[in-house]
Fold this protein.
Amino acid sequence: MAGVLEKQFGGSPDAIRHHYDVSTQFYRGWLCKRLVYSCAMWEGLAPNATLEQAQYRKLEHHADQAGALPGTRILDVGCGWGSMLNHLVSERGIVHAEGLTLSKDQHDHIICADRPEVSVQLKSWTDYEPKQALDGIISIGAFEHFADPSQTREERQQVYRDFLSKCFNWLKDDGRLSLQTIAYGKMEPDQANPFIANDIFPNAELPFLSDITKAAEGVFETILMRNDAVDYARTCEEWARRLKRTYKTNPSFCSKETYEKYMKYLRLSAVGFRMGKLQLLRFSFSKPGWHRSKGNRG
């Protein structure tokens, strides 16, 4: 996308569309059939498990952590092309699954599916208000877009706290938040590869683990936290393999420039996760005292 990207904390629409609106057909050429564009979950699967199986495992993990049971209402912040929304209504019997995205391509893709139990808004979490209290919230791969590199660390922490506070207010007393995000590991922001920062994810800044835990203090209790960096390395490697295969089979599938840019991005990302420079954090949050109370949803 040409020109200067719009500055808007909480997620810049132009920055999101720069990456996600390349075209749905392009992503369909190397993601799994569900169009899941986030780290898969390989734990508990056979060594030769497929990407499709690992992505299904990830969707189930977040559905479990959000307490997604038949009849519940779940919000997906940063819903992509609707893979989690579709999973919730097809596999979990959710009465209503709502998504938020800033990508027009993703929004239109979900609208075209025309599923009555699913709704989507082309809107930032900063402008959202649910019509009624939610049973659970899921956010996968969106948190790293919430803050901006021009902000101080304290300002970024405040953005994270604002997001968590909004989630707290949107949830029922026994509601839960399942959050997945990339984070800095053994590196500082000024060590980040400028290619990734400028060409792939402009106007985005990763959190540190401590930023998230600090932002959650006094808001949510952390009932689960795990770092699955190796899972993301394997996921990026599988995406690169699929992208290479698709491009080799059909060079007109995308431009050579786009192909080379995304191959470089996926390979660099895989190395970063394997070296521990990057983390893949998965959190489950509850309101204080909920997981010790009687009658919780498991």
